[in-house]
């Protein structure tokens, strides 16, 4: 908000400039009024150098009526500096000054300013701009105009009083206004900012596309170079084999060393030699290498019909449901780490496989199922998804599923179900929102009881259970609510922390040891 207040005046002026440029005068007046009511500095509406319809109309009307003040008031506002650098504009402005200086002499109607006043203005103009105008020889004769008593009868100035000269000058003025009106630099700043933003966005997309194209191009170049090298190697081998066949036709025997060299060149480092006593052993080695290369090709995953898959999961028998859940987990885990695995997970999330975007998920029924096989297959799928950061964010969308997992952790006695469920919570516990959720679900007290049974009572639990429980406890202690829960159970926390330091728990790293030291140093814990 403070940044907005800093630039508010300038932003209002930019908007005001746009409104004025497009003729929204009533809207501009309302903006200026509200600006004053808010106590902001008066708006200075910048008149950009472009000519719009109203200004162009007023200039031409002032030209025809001889209104010098109105004409040059608009002219000097719209192009204050252009006449200092543009030769064509200087000449046009000079002739316009002549037009207004002799206007009372040309017309039969009376003009408010007499000839003396108009000529005096022209003298002032020559005094201020004469140095620049003196570089144009065609203008020099007109410098004497104010000194001539009757310019209309003077041979040098007679053409100035003809209708054709006045019409030609008006045409030049109109052409200049039309040309100057289309100059891109004369657009309102708001329009310039908008066009710049659009252009930057296009440039960003082009640059991003260029980077992607460059990466693809480099990959294709490497593949092409490899194919070219293989092609040249095969050509060389083919030529040697043709020479060998021609020699065999002439009675020259083929030596084992020659076959050895051919096989070595063809198979590269994978070649381990052949048995000369076995017929066609070299050919078998080559065919076997080609077969192994074809087997190593990456299988291409077929896109899943997630909608039908969900229907099958809900409506199928237990055995088929377990197989489907297992297949979904294998599809994720057996994909290569990196882009292939990310693609599988993206597919699951995009189609909302677990219904995490809904208030009620069909997976809640699987987690609370009376069938241990269904529970185990479901929680193991969750654990595999939670192993990736994107999957953690996806699971965090559904408090209902998280609550079902917490319930399993607290109540389940089957280690095959409880351990992966605890693993899911541990993976998600690095997120601040999940930490608050778990502490609100009274997970801290359950962890304190588990850790107490492990280290104080010597209860036998798996190493995985010990490591994950300790890690989850440390993660929850990082937030303020977790520290507050430790203070409420300071005696139990102190006993467990000392046990953690004294026991050899492999997953308690230096980071967790520093966290333990921080908790022990808390005043509420030390007083126990």
Automatic annotation (TrEMBL):
Subcellular location: Cytoplasm, Cytoskeleton, Cilium basal body; Cytoplasm, Cytoskeleton, Microtubule organizing center, Centrosome, Centriole
Stretches assigned to the LisH domain: 439-510
InterPro entries recorded: ARM-like, ARM-type_fold, ARMC9, ARMC9_ARM_dom, ARMC9_CTLH-like_dom, LisH
Protein name: LisH domain-containing protein ARMC9
Organism: Eptatretus burgeri
Pfam families from the UniProt entry: ARMC9_ARM (PF21050), CTLH_Armc9 (PF23138)
Keyword annotations of the record: Cell projection, Cilium biogenesis/degradation
Gene Ontology CC: one annotated term: ciliary basal body
Regions that span the bilayer: none
Primary location recorded for the protein, binned into one broad class: cytoplasm
One annotated GO biological process: cilium assembly
PANTHER family: LISH DOMAIN-CONTAINING PROTEIN ARMC9 (PTHR14881)
Domain ARMC9 CTLH-like, first and last residues per copy: 54-180
